Amino acid sequence: MREPSAVFVQADPSDGLTTAIRSGTTWSAAGVEVGWDDGTVDVTAAAVSRVALRWADRLPTGALILGDAWERSYGDLQWRHQQPERFLPWYFLAHDPSTGATSGAGVDVQPNAFCSWTVDGDGFTLWLDLRNGGGAAHLGGRTVSAATVRRFEDAGTPWQTLHAAVATMSTRLPARPEPAPVAGPLSGPFVGANNWYYAYGANFDEKAVLQDASTLVELADGHRVKPFSVVDDGWYPGGICSGGPWDRGIPGVFDDMAGTAAAIKAIGARPGLWFRPLLVREPSPLTSTAPHDKPGRALDPTYPEVLDGIRADLRRFKDWGFELVKHDFSTYDVFGGFGPAMGSRLTRDGWQFHDRSRTTAEIVLAFYREIRAAAEDVVLIGCNTVGHLAAGLVDIQRTGDDTSGRDWERTRKMGVNTLAFRLPQHNRFFAVDADCVPCTPQTPWELNERFLDLVARSGTALFLSIDPAARSERTDRALRAAIRLALDGGDESGIEPADWLVNTTPTEWRSGAETVRYDWSLPWGADPNG
Known about the structure:
Mean pLDDT: 95
Oligomer: single chain
Helix content: 10-25%
Low-confidence stretches: 181-185
Distance between the termini: 42 Å
């Protein structure tokens, strides 16, 4: 990536952007110094909020633009004509329909800034958000390596170019383990049961969890790779989403969590467990000042005592015998909102972490690294985690918002969209998880079955919510075939959405020389109230 045409800085959120003065490969203004070294952007300052780097490179008229999302996608990933104010997290591609060429730019994974792009008729801008919460990061003269910028050239087709771009942004990560003939601690394929989309955290107990495990083992039909059985939200005292401590199950329901894990293993599955590391049931002096719907209960990850507690939780889960841990809601608990509410500002102004000397991205990265280190030899699923920061620090990433065992429209909108637009991240950043395939009485099986087939072919993580009341000869036949295909690693030739340039939930998918068509619509089409 060549050096920018201009650089702008913002020291305090209340200040406007100031044009930085160039001297060699350094730009300075308002007490902020920005260095450029072969694509790496270093920022030195006493205090800083944002840095903007501008390239005056005109894009083709009529170009279609694609970006990513901060954390999960919400059915909103799409190619779109130029919209100058549209912010594009982490990377962007621009496709010229008249020539077929695709190019773009992005940043390496695990940056120390929240990075987004805007694209207009005269060029494009990289925005580095270096704030601490809702205020300036007080670096005290420290230098932060904010991001390493990459330029993407055409690799043949838009799909091939996105694959090449993702590979470029992840070159510094260690190689992911290859799927093993018998799945090792951190290797895929990842297939399992998750009760959330038929139980929704209520009316389930150890007996139901063991039934889920038995169902998956039965349907896997002796496959050499063992499936998982995940105990999702609702296993601990206080009710769903109530928070820690995570030291016991619900009395009379999950009396012995180690015993539950052992029973799952005895059935022939691998036990998994959900938790929300940054929420507690009672007010704590270690909580964040971020805006939150549960004030005084969302923990601030810059307190050493908070990280000590999370490390202890993960050791406990491992001692209980769980081989997979799903950590959830941390982006919401850090910022006070989900991805769509974060927008380009990330969070409300005016609050800061206990430690104001680091950028928010540095803090979130340190949090993910602590979890990864404490969960050695445990499969980690990141849900509501920031994808570009979690890359290399989780084994599986929930890349889209929730599917549904009650409303097919959510599965179509969230599941199909995230699989189509984030599939190139699979086995580069992490294993992609487009979320569970439901099998429930409330949702049409003929549509769920199509989503099941697509996920199984893709080779991405396949988790299933199978309500015992929905099982039939037809469902079992399709489930058995898909589970075995997924445990084999999916379609050997891979899949590609053929109509993703013009459809947010592609209906045509190429698999080698074959084109598979999926009709995702209910008889009345897509319900806008869904």
